[in-house]
Amino acid sequence: MTPVHFSFTLAFTLGFSGLAFHRKHLLSALLCLEAMMLSLYIAMALWSFQTESTMFSSSPMMLLAFSACEASAGLALLVATSRTHGTDHLMNLNLLQC
Asked: Which of 17, 20, 31, 46 is buried deepest, with most CB atoms within 10 A?
């Protein structure tokens, strides 16, 4: 495994572990998701550049577009929950109390 591949794998793993273990605030969960998507985007861009295939050249841009949509939906949920509940703690969010 080259150092470049190791660094992207490590970045994805750190983002995933941050998402799994530090689930106190919604904003930190969104930041971990964005870190995971950024590492996936860079890895896909380098992969399509290394293979020199025109078939996969649009894949990183599609992933980036979906990542932007995910980020906007996450921020909209963050604003909505902070307005209704007054905080962004994940422990206060319970679907059974709606």
From this structure: 31
